[in-house]
Amino acid sequence: MIYSLNGTVIHTELNAVVIECGGVGYKCLATMNTLRALPKIGEKAMVYTHMLVREDAVELCGFATTNEMNCFKMLMSISGVGAKVAISILSELSPEQVALSVSTGDSKTLTRAAGVGNKLAQRIILELKDKIKKLGIAELSGKGSEVAVSSEIFPAAGNVSQALSALAVLGYSPDEVLPFMQGIDTELPVEKIIGETLKAIGKK
Fold first, then answer.
1. How far is CA 170 from CA 31, 77, 166, 199, in A?
2. What domains are defined for the chain?
3. 8-state DSSP, 30
4. Rounded CA gap, 59 and 50, in Å?
5. What is the pLDDT of residues 67-98, one digit of tens each?
C-alpha cells in the first residue's frame, strides 16, 4: 500500500494530479480542494494516498490532508458511493463540513455536490451515523447508553457529543480526541469545537 507521495507536481487536470517521484509520474485522482491546496507545476508537493483496486483498473487517490483522506474512506464505505461521488462531495465541501452535515443530519448541504441527490444524501447520513454509534459515541442530545462524555468535565455535553460524532467521520475515536478537548470552551459552536480540536491534534 502506498501511503503518500512526495515529489514534483508535473501535471494537473480536472480531478487529477501527476506527481513525479524518482523519475516515475504517479497520477492521482484528487478533489478540487486538494488541487487548490497544491503548489504550482514544477514545485515540490506531498499528498496522502489511497489505492482503489477494481477488476479493470488500479488507481491512486491523492489528498492534501489526512482528514480529507479519512473522510473519503468513510464515504466510500457507504453503499452507492463510489470514488467519483466521494471526490465530488469533497470537491464541494471540506471534510469538516461533511462531518458536521452528517452529525447534524443536514442532507441539504450534501446535495450541493454533483451527483448527490436527496435520497443518497440521507443514506450517507444514516449509514455513517450507524458507524459512529458502533464507535461508542452518543446521539446528538448527549444522552443514551453509549455516551462516554462526563458532564462534570464537559458541562456542554451535547456540543461535545456532536463534535465527537463529526470527528468520527474524519477517522478519530473518542479516546483519541477527548484529551485534546479539555482546554476548549465547550460553549463554542460545534464547528468551532471541531476546528479547535483538529488544531490541537495538529500541534501534537
1. 16, 13, 7, 14
2. 4-63 (2.40.50.140), 78-134 (1.10.150.20)
3. E
4. 8
5. 999 999 999 999 889 999 999 999 999 998 99
